[in-house]
Amino acid sequence: MGKYKQKIKDRAKNFKLSSEDLHNLYDLFYMIDNNKLREKGISDWHIKFFKRIEKATMPNIYCKKECENVDN
Q1: Rounded CA separation 42/8 (Å)
Q2: What is the pLDDT of residues 18-57, one digit of tens each?
Q3: CB 57 within 8 A of CB 28
């Protein structure tokens, strides 16, 4: 199990999402039926995952002072 966990960590270091990937995942959130996720018991995970993606794709919603001078 230790070797498996190390292999996963090594692969995760090289794993990167493009901006298009993030936006596609964000759009996917609205295509999924939350009632079915609730039945399967994964709606909480889904919402937390969505919020993480939303922070990356729409930072202006989540950061105030830090993002004001980003473009300057």
Answers
A1: 22
A2: 888 888 888 888 888 778 888 888 888 888 888 888 887 7
A3: no
